[in-house]
Amino acid sequence: MKKKVVMSIMAPALLAGSIVLPQFPTVAYAENKESIAAPKDDIIEFQDPGIKAAVKGALSPILGHSATDADLTQENLNKIKFLETAGSVTTLTDLVHLPNLLELLIAAPNEGAKVLDTTPLANLTKLEIFQFIIPDVQLSSLSPLKDIPLRILSIEAEPTVDNSETILGSLSSLRTLEIFYSTSKGIKTIGNLDNLLHLQQISLENFGLEEAPTLLGAKNLRYANFNNNNLSNVPDLSHCQKLIDLDVESNNIKDYTNVDKLLNLPNLSSISLISNLLTTYPAVAEKLNPNNLNANFIDGHGLSSQFAIKPINTQTIQQGTQVEIPIEWIDEDFGEKPFYDFTPQQKEFVKAENLNITTDNNNVSVTPQGSSIVIKAAEGVSGKTHINLSYGGDLTTAFDVVVN
């Protein structure tokens, strides 16, 4: 599904599929911030080769020559304000030697630790931008970030070890919050995030969220992305008067609750409901971009890329016998295999056990079984039975069974 494409701060392209961030005005850090005093003489021994290499790379333009081990004094390390790693990372311990760091990007194919202890981040008391992009690594915790004046937090990784996402609401300086978890491991509790008064962009993907944060203080919010969660309603962000885009793709949304409120926002450009569980097309839905409704179950309204039940032909069976009929899916437009795959939420939705099954007589019984239905004819009874199958809304199909 689509992702927001915005300008990156620290690198034009980090990794394929990585999170990218909006561009903010450059801050004159050197002029505005007082450096933290630290010992100046001893050469610092680094534990992580990747961070050590990044530090040398950051020092070289500051010193005017290619940095060597002899240059790794605390006096020189105090001068580093921007750091970007290029190699694998096994520990973050060395970050304690960079007290004046303002921007930190850790992004590399991982050949190091599968879990990184984030405790050293608590020492980066001036850090304003933290990007971590190693999809198959877990951060131990987000708690060390609690008292840091971050403006931008961007993470693409495995879910945290300690489920510390509740601290996100305390990061009151945030303008951009983007977290994409590579796998979903249960429901993450994040709270309402109502205190994020400066927030302009939020993206929380694969969190297992059943409710989106209310964000009542985010009056400057422009972009919101809650794709790949378990939301059952479109979030009510009608108080965010500057909202431009809202993405709630791949959730459990079955209706258009709150959409009418959002459509009244003066700057709203898009609400994307791709790959949800929608089965109807009321008047409010007609106001949306049809492409933002792709990969739903809105059958019979001429929309493209909609899942539909493959028509079932008339079945003929003998008294006392049974037949198993698979429930198959097609693209409504083309009558063939759908272009999109089912999301995990949609796979649950289309199970035959969720069907509402009705018949016009008792000549046969119809029982869901896995992704099929089993039709059994009664003994000593013949004739035709009309069967209707429905998942709700307009997502229905009907066929006849003739018993001889």
Folded structure, characterized:
This protein has two domains: 29-293, Alpha-Beta Horseshoe (Leucine-rich repeat, LRR (right-handed beta-alpha superhelix)); 307-403, Immunoglobulin-like (Sandwich). It has helices at residues 29-32, 49-63, 74-77, 259-262, 344-349; strands spanning 82-84, 103-107, 115-116, 129-139, 152-158, 176-181, 201-205, 223-225, 245-247, 270-272, 307-309, 315-317, 322-326, 329-331, 356-359, 364-369, 372-377, 383-390, 396-403. Strands 1, 2, 3, 4, 5, 6, 7, 8, 9 and 10 form a ten-stranded parallel sheet that branches. With 404 residues, it is mainly β. Residues 1-40 have low confidence and may be disordered.
The gist of it:
This protein is mostly beta strands.
Radius of gyration: 28 Å
CATH architect. name of the largest domain: Alpha-Beta Horseshoe
Largest β sheet strand count, sense and barrel closure: 10 strands, parallel
Distance between the termini: 49 Å
| Low-confidence sequence ranges | 1-40
CATH superfamily grouping of the largest domain: Ribonuclease Inhibitor
Oligomer: single chain
Provide the descriptors you would attach to this structure in a database record.
disordered N terminus; 404 residues; Immunoglobulin-like; ten-stranded parallel β-sheet; 5 helices; mainly beta; Leucine-rich repeat, LRR (right-handed beta-alpha superhelix); single chain
